[in-house]
């Protein structure tokens, strides 16, 4: 019997970009953890945001089954990627195996993660500061990308992380950067929505920036755009966004 060809392709830059977008553009995800009582996989749904380096972040109740499981065993998997029309299996999706790291109040990253989470999920303000809620930062360890039939790839966790020395500076100035950009171009989010062929909805707003790209959101819609190269500072991010919005196609 002849050996069957492997369904897994060699991972290239196009696959890495698709994986990053699937993870960073997700507003929610299916999460699978290990039930501490039975050892069986336990799946649930969580709201998703990203830290400044692209690592996924979740906000969960300490009373939930998946939180208790993560505290006992930090291994988890996230499934991101929305099915569209037709066969759901024909659409891209990403399974990311992660190690969950709790981010309690007082943690050095807590305020940054809280701000970025609220930028993406403003309705979470109703409960984000409840004492029984906490954040987990999910460190990607490895991932499996299915880009559609016949397009399977394996990725290292580092493929999904923004490796930039500008991360901390950009995070510290993120709100100021967005304010300055809007001050110069009040219609920038709406123009970006048109340029990026976002769904028809209004109003759009910028809800996240990092050295690798930015997100815009409107209601239940969120669109992620990745820069061609990493931005070196906040001014570079503004320049990149302005060029995308206002340069002649």
UniProtKB/TrEMBL annotation:
Gene3D superfamilies: Electron Transport, Fmn-binding Protein, Chain A (2.30.110.10), PNP-oxidase-like (3.20.180.10). Residues 12-157 form the CREG-like beta-barrel domain. Signal peptide: none annotated. InterPro entries: CREG_beta-barrel, Haem_oxidase_HugZ-like_sf, Split_barrel_FMN-bd. Pfam families: CREG_beta-barrel. It comes from the Bacteria. This is HugZ family protein. It comes from Rhizobium bangladeshense. The lineage of its organism: Bacteria, Pseudomonadati, Pseudomonadota, Alphaproteobacteria, Hyphomicrobiales.
């Amino acid at each position: 019997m002849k050996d069957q060809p492997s369904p897994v392709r060699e991972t290239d830059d196009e696959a890495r970009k698709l994986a990053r977008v699937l993870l960073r553009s997700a507003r929610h995800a299916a999460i699978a953890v290990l039930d501490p009582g039975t050892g069986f996989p336990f799946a649930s749904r969580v709201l998703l945001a990203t830290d400044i380096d692209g690592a996924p972040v979740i906000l969960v109740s300490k009373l939930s089954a998946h939180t208790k499981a993560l505290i006992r065993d930090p291994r988890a998997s996230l499934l991101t990627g929305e099915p569209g029309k037709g066969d759901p299996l024909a659409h891209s999706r990403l399974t990311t195996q992660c190690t969950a790291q709790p981010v309690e109040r007082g943690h050095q990253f807590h305020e940054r993660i809280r701000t970025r989470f609220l930028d993406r999920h403003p309705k979470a303000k109703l409960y984000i500061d409840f004492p029984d809620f906490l954040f987990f930062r999910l460190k990607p360890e490895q991932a499996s990308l299915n880009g559609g039939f016949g397009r399977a790839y394996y990725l290292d966790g580092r493929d999904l992380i923004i490796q930039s020395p500008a991360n901390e500076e950009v995070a510290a100035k993120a709100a100021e950067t967005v304010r300055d950009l809007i001050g110069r171009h009040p219609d920038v989010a709406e123009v970006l929505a048109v340029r990026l062929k976002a769904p028809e909805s209004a109003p759009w707003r910028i809800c996240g920036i990092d050295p690798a790209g930015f997100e815009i959101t409107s209601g239940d819609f969120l669109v992620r755009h990745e820069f061609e190269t990493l931005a070196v500072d906040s001014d570079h991010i503004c320049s990149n966004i302005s060029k995308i919005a206002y340069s002649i196609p």
